[in-house]
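Input record, target 12 of the design panel.
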């Protein structure tokens, strides 16, 4: 799919709010992801595991043959698959941090110690990992057919360009 000229211009002007995006990813994992796992009948141990088979998500011919519950379950499976694909596609350090923190529930101190980071630097790298996750998740949520919302948070164009909300 080609990006239209207007969309491309907006994309170039839009600036990712990295702090809010990192927080959105953290909120997703702490508040929402467990629910998707339950609906998909999956477990954290299924992430990056051979048991999470892409063929197990379920096919869809574009027609609504499922009741709402089945559709929610299929969407949840697609979300879990998208998370698995996203973590796997992240850079090695980001994927490691995301997997150990959000999937294995290791403490920040344990991960920091394993990777050899000082506290301040680790927090920066962890936030960068969350931003990378959000950017890559935008691709994988679409690729895997999940209707979950984008986790990227952009600064408003008005704020980025110094224009008031009234347009003046």
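The sequence produced for target 12 reads:
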């Amino acid at each position: 799919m080609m990006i239209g000229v207007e969309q491309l211009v907006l994309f170039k002007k839009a600036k990712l709010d990295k702090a809010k995006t990192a927080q959105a990813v953290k909120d997703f994992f702490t508040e929402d992801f467990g629910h998707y796992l339950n609906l998909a009948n999956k477990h954290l141990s299924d992430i990056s595991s051979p048991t999470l088979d892409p063929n197990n998500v379920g096919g869809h011919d574009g027609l609504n043959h499922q009741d709402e519950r089945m559709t929610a379950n299929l969407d949840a499976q697609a979300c879990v698959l998208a998370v698995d694909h996203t973590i796997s596609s992240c850079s090695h350090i980001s994927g490691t941090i995301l997997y150990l923190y959000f999937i294995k529930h290791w403490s920040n101190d344990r991960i920091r110690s394993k990777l050899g980071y000082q506290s301040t630097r680790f927090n920066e790298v962890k936030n960068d990992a969350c931003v990378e996750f959000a950017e890559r998740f935008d691709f994988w949520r679409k690729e895997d057919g999940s209707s979950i919302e984008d986790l990227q948070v952009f600064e408003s164009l008005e704020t980025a360009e110094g224009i008031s909300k009234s347009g003046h």
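Confidence is low (pLDDT under 50) at residues 1-9, 49-66, 159-168.
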